[in-house]
Amino acid sequence: MADLAPFQGLRFSSRSDPGAVIAPPYDVLDDSDREGLLARNVYNVAAIDLPVAPSVMSAGGAKPADYVSAGERLRSWIAEGVLELDEASLYVHRMDWECNGTQRSTIGVIGALALPPRRDDSSAAMPPGPEDVLPHEHTTPKASTDRLELTRATEANLSPIWVLTPSRGFSKILEQSDEPVMDTTTADGTRQRLWVVGDDGSISAIREALQPHPVVIADGHHRFGVALTYRDELVAAGRSLPGMERVLALVTELEPESVELHGIHRLIRRWPAGEDPLATLETWFEAEALSDDELVAPRLEHADAMALVTPTGRWLLRAHSGSNLGDFDTDRLRVALENAGVTNVEYHHSERYVTNEVLNGHAAAAVIVRPPTITQIMAVASGGERMPPKSTFFSPKPPTGMVLRPLT
């Protein structure tokens, strides 16, 4: 049921150093990361994807002129030949990395994924019901509509959403014997390779392998929602762009060994006055004190628990026997925090960061959570359900700038 089509991609000229012009996804960069990327090469894609510093963006401080400048910069790079337009193609993308001493790899295809049909009630960013593209978690409200503003200004998809297909053997179809058009290693040690697939036979084989199944969004729920919103906005305004009914997507086979799943931990800056985090959470969980100060995330699955960190100690938290708190750590914690009146929750994938924030006195508590499994994600999405926001952090993250997709 997934409809993936070839498109005319924009790629950096072969004169460019690929390692100097691609960038990690916008939502994992901080101000110093962006500065470093632009210092290395003024044509780094972050100049368009993050037109202002991430701290300014997250605080909603970007101005309309910043997005206009990003659009103008994209068009000037095309005019200068920094970015070049391909013939209609699909793109095979392979990532190779090391995980706990073991070499791992994933191979996928980048194409233009059809959006669900427009509905009369398009108020929701991701409409419910049976779809060809299945979300697996709710999204959090954004401080600003930066991705939508950026799409309006650039009229382009700058980075792919990442979706998983249950199509067995899909990875085998994508294997390439030719030399890649891009081959570089990103700062996280992941080797990134890209091949252009333009022949009709290969394109047809890839599309046919995908069509029997829906795909599940692994990463990019917000960008998928923005694509829907922008499409509906154009229709409502009586406008039309050739690419507005599709979104740039990387599709990989749903194989547990082809991705890493990490939890997205919770950081609470302020706890309700007069209450103790441990005492509050013991209403919902059995607590077991931890005596060492090692990172606990790798141990949580074996312990069948999440972990609480406060300035006075650390504890494993297990749901009370017979409690009806849901199947996932994020579900269980959401119920407990909502009932405790805790609303100022921040989300971070680094256990070390949230722990240090607590120990340095910058936060009242942190909760280290486990990610769901690939099987659980697929079951939730296929059943029409969704996990709480920020339930999963997939890695390695596909970089931005391998290929861009103009909507015009």
Task: Walk me through the structure.
Strands 1, 2, 3, 4, 5, 7, 8, 9, 10 and 11 form a 10-stranded mixed β-sheet that branches. A 6-stranded antiparallel β-sheet has the order 14-16-15-18-13-17. Strands 6-20 form a two-stranded antiparallel sheet. A hairpin with a 2-residue loop joins strand 3 and strand 4 (102-114). Helix 5 runs parallel beside helix 6 and helix 6 (146-154) packs across helix 9 (221-236). It has helices spanning 18-21, 31-40, 46-49, 54-58, 64-80, 146-154, 170-174, 200-210, 221-236, 277-281, 300-303, 329-339, 351-359, 374-382; strands at 4-5, 7-12, 83-99, 102-114, 133-134, 156-157, 161-165, 182-185, 191-197, 215-219, 246-253, 260-262, 265-268, 285-290, 306-310, 313-319, 345-348, 365-368, 393-395, 405-406. It is built from 14 helices and 20 strands. Residues 121-130 have low confidence and may be disordered. It folds into 2 domains: 4-261 and 393-406, no CATH class; 264-370, Conserved hypothetical protein from pyrococcus furiosus pfu- 392566-001, domain 2 (2-Layer Sandwich), CATH 3.30.1760. The two termini are 26 Å apart. With 408 residues, it is α+β, with helices and mostly antiparallel strands.
- Estimate the mean pLDDT confidence: 88
Count of beta strands: 20
Instruction: Choose one word for the global shape.
Output: globular
Class per helix and strand makeup: alpha+beta
Largest sheet: 10 strands, mixed
Helix content: 25-40%
- Sheet-strand content, in percent, reads 25-35%
Give the number of helices.
14
* Estimated radius of gyration: 22 Å
- Give the CA-CA distance, first to last residue: 26 Å
Q: In total, how many domains does the architecture comprise?
A: 2
Low-confidence stretches: 121-130
